[in-house]
Amino acid sequence: MKTSTEIDQNISKFPATQRRSRRSREELNLQILTAATSLFASGGYKGVTIREIAKTANVTLPTVYRLFENKRDLYIECCRRELSAELPQLNKVLESHDRPEDILYISTEALFHWSNQGLHRIVMRAIMDEDTDMIRNEAMQLFSSEYMKNTLKAAQKLCNGDIEDAEIRVIFIHSLLYVAPSTFKFWSEFNPIKPKLSQHTKLPLLVEILLRVFPEIKWREVESRLQIAR
Predict the structure, then answer these.
(1) Given 10, 82, 171, 225, which residue has the most CB atoms within 10 angstroms?
(2) Is the CB of residue 127 less than 8 Å from the CB of residue 135?
(3) CATH second-level architecture of 1-68?
(4) Count of alpha carbons within 13 Å of 80, Cβ hemisphere only?
(5) Which residues contact 219 (CB under 8 A, 6 or more apart)?
(6) Residue 32 and residue 71: Cα distance in Å, rounded?
């Protein structure tokens, strides 16, 4: 018969075992999400199978289905996870500035860099595939965030309080940010006229976008001031 001490010792092992199990589940979850984000970004929702995700994540097919109900559930979780990680950090940066032109510049700069990340590619693929149901939750998460609210407030101040004008201009900024970098790249590479655009880098292109949406603001001065402050 076991002594009370031995029984207590056995009982004390259970929480540690459970913790190890939970950590293992979290690690598998992360492996699958990382692999899925990469595959969805390059192939779109329709172009990727659960089997491919499992293979890339180096897990079994049943493991994926144990953690995610189906491909749609996994797809949405990829978007939600990346937005949840990005938006609070971006908003924290915005809240550290007072000038509306600075806030709008930093917001646009963040979106510009974000456009090269997996989440942007996932959303763009969903738009191209017209999978509106797939991106509805992510769009609501982005557009209802404090980050977007602060961006719109800054734009509204630059539009003399006209919220409708501000919203339209911010929409144009988002639209240009989605397509300008790739278009710029292929235009420079394949255009037979060979325009002299090689001197442009990411930030000058960013300023060009802002100049066309808010031409009344001296964006190059804003850029210089912020760079000096950094």
Answers:
(1) 82
(2) yes
(3) Orthogonal Bundle (1.10)
(4) 9
(5) 101, 105, 207, 210, 211
(6) 11
- Give which of 186, 188, 149, 199 is closest to 170, Cα–Cα: 149
pLDDT at 168: 95
State pTM to two decimals: 0.66
3-state secondary structure the chain: CCCHHHHHHHHCHHHHHHHHHHHHHHHHHHHHHHHHHHHHHHHCCCCCCHHHHHHHHCCCHHHHHHHCCCHHHHHHHHHHHHHHHHHHHHHHHHCCCCCHHHHHHHHHHHHHHHCCCHHHHHHHHHHHCCCHHHHHHHHHHHHCCHHHHHHHHHHHHHCCCCHHHHHHHHHHHHHHHHHHHHHHHHHHHHCCCCCCCCCCCHHHHHHHHHHHHCCCCCHHHHHHHHHHHC
Domain residue limits, the chain: 1-68, 79-229
The pLDDT of residue 60: 92
Which of 195, 180, 48 is CA-nearest to residue 122?
Answer: 48
pLDDT at 123: 63
Nearest alpha-carbon partner for 123 in 136, 107, 106: 136
Residues of the chain with pLDDT under 70: 1-23, 114-141, 181-182, 185, 188-203
Nearest by Cα to 48 from 66, 62, 32, 63: 32
Distance, CA of 3 to CA of 5 (rounded, Å)? 5
